[in-house]
Amino acid sequence: MAAYGLYTHIASNKFRSMLLLAGLFLLIYVLVFAGALLAEVLIKGDGSVQYYLVAAFADLIKALPIATIGAAAWIVIAYFFHQTIIDAVTGGGDVTRQQQPRLYNLLENLCISRGIPMPKLKIMDSEALNAFATGLNRRQYSITVTSGLMRALNDQEIESVLGHELTHIRNGDVQLMVVAVIIAGVVGFFGELFFRMFTNLSWNSGGGGWSSSSSSSSSSSDSKGKGSGGGAVIVVIVAVALILLAWLLSQVVKLALSRSRELLADAGSVELTKNPDAMISALRKIEGRGELPGATSAVMELCVDNPREGFADLFATHPSVESRVRALVQYAGGHDPGPLALPSDTADGPGVPAAPEGSPTPPPLPPTGPWGRPGDAGRITPGGGPWSRS
After folding, report:
1. Geometric angle at alpha carbon 302, from 149 and 147, rounded to 5°
2. Among 177, 208, 258, 357, which residue's beta carbon has the most beta carbons within 10 A?
3. Is residue 271 among the annotated active site residues?
4. What is the spatial distance between Cα 387 and Cα 390, in angstroms, rounded to a whole number?
5. pLDDT digits (tens, 9 = 90+) for 31-80
6. Which string of DSSP letters, residue by residue, matches 319-361?
7. Which residues pair with 106 in a beta bridge?
8. What span, in angstroms and rounded, lies between the C-alpha atoms of 320 and 136?
9. CA distance 33 to 57
10. What is the pLDDT of residues 296-326, one digit of tens each?
11. Paired sense of beta strands 209-212 and 131-134, if any
């Protein structure tokens, strides 16, 4: 990573956000070109490869203004309404100090201690243990916490989770992820549209051309006598490959948002709370219990922990809890109690099963971490780890 401090990390995220926006338009143009190739095959099924490429490029030039306006409109909609969409998916709702004094006070104290503007606070009614931050500017920033998390974690652990999400806001990670979700959404929408167009194509074996599967028999007979249509086959393959490439690049865009952002958010939480042990125990309790029923993959990618894993962990957006805990132990001086069972856990329930009777229990967590003494709020940690301030 090119960022070595908080401010350079924020600047790096803003720069990458601009690159992602540029990438959005580039991927849209690739999809439009692929769609133009398929459309030209429908119009003329016996052309050469060169003919289709030239015709599709001309179509792309004509469609550039429409594609650009469409992508810009998508960004505007996402900018103003992404939180409304997320709330509709998750069922999250705003809460006030009077409704949730415990949670509100914990978040407010963290914000006051670092002079951070207070984001909106939302509660999602779910037994899952998770939280996430959203927003593209100070007026939109919000932190959503599940009701299950509030019941399962103590005040110090909840404070650590809130500190984790506040760090995502401070570092610009939230903006970056929302932009990435916009890109993936646009590419997924148009990719599916063009794939539907492709599946409606059928090969006329008698005439050697492509036509819509809904075409009449007369159009099929009219295609007889045309050329072999070998160029059409090649062009259709190229169009499908471009659509697949655009989708793959949209996923790589999200992977480009290095998973180290979660490690940095964990470190930022420790910097805010001065309590690495609380962050570790919170992660251990959340481990395996963070799945939000009905939530899309885009929402899960914003959460403290995303238990969903891609193919061979290739598309996993979060490092494992084990590696995050290991980093907190190594660089922040925390203590790992190992996997933790909750009172609500059963042998057949989610998460870590309860330990059998007679098994040794993990040692209790110390009340504060190595930075927890009152006079150490601004002290820099010795040892020169990657999270210590220069």
Report:
1. 20
2. 177
3. no
4. 9
5. 889 888 888 888 887 788 888 899 999 999 998 898 888 888 887 887 78
6. --HHHHHHHHHHHH------S---TT--TTSSSSPPPPTTPPP
7. none
8. 27
9. 7
10. 777 888 899 888 665 445 556 688 899 999 9
11. unpaired
Q: What is the pTM of this model?
A: 0.69
Please give the torsion angle defined by the CA atoms of residues 31, 36, 42 and 44, in that order, rounded to the nearest 10 degrees: -150
Radius of gyration from C-alpha coordinates of the chain = 26
Classify strands 131-134 and 142-146 as parallel, antiparallel or unpaired: antiparallel
388's tokens:
């210590």
- 333 burial level (CB within 10 Å; 0-12, 13-18, 19+): middle
What are the two backbone dihedrals, phi and then psi, of residue 236, each rounded to the nearest 5 degrees? -65, -40
Q: From residue 255, give the alpha-carbon distance in Å to each of 140, 179, 290.
A: 25, 13, 21
Q: Is there a contact between 169 and 272 (Cβ–Cβ < 8 Å)?
A: no
CA distance 314 to 248: 12
Catalytic residue among 40, 165, 262, 271: 165
Structure tokens at 33: 């070109």
Report how far residue 300's alpha carbon sits from residue 166's, in angstroms, rounded to the nearest whole number: 17
Alpha helices in 91-207 (DSSP H): 101-114, 147-152, 155-171, 173-199
Extents of the domains making up the chain: 1-24+68-187+250-341
Q: What is the DSSP letter of 146?
A: E
Q: Which two tokens stand for residue 182?
A: 């916009």
- The type of residue at 244 is L
CATH level 2 (architecture), domain 1-24+68-187+250-341: 2-Layer Sandwich (3.30)
How far apart (Å, rounded) are the C-alpha atoms in residues 232 and 201? 11
Which of the two residues, 108 and 26, has the higher pLDDT score?
A: 108
CA 388 from chain centre, in angstroms, equals 27
Parallel/antiparallel/unpaired status of strands 93-94 and 120-124:
antiparallel
* CB atoms inside a 10 Å sphere around CB 373: 11
